[in-house]
Amino acid sequence: MDPQITTPDTSDRHRLDENICVHIFTASAAMVGVCLTVVGIIRVVISRHKSDLFADDLLAVNAMLYLASSLLSYWALRTRNVTRNYRLERIADIIFLVALTLTAVSAAYITWAMSVH
Prior knowledge:
The protein is mainly α. It has one domain. It is built from 4 helices and no strands. It is elongated. It starts with a helix and ends with a helix.
């Protein structure tokens, strides 16, 4: 077997990591805006129905997680140290996945709360 086909070299892995970091950065930044928009919409619904939901608090935490992921991704893109880049990218990736899971939980909670009220 040809070793170039089975194992990517260091430059290919670095380029792949850089691409992942860019995707995390752009997706996290977009999701901060989405969370803030949904918080605003929920606040309008709450004021009309005179009931308070826990969903706006969940989404505010969610927006902070996406912001942290976005900032860590940006820092990873800007750093010149390969070890630091890798570490920051992994942390940003984990935070992004936690925030994505919280987004699904928030969506389920909002759906449940709207069907009950």
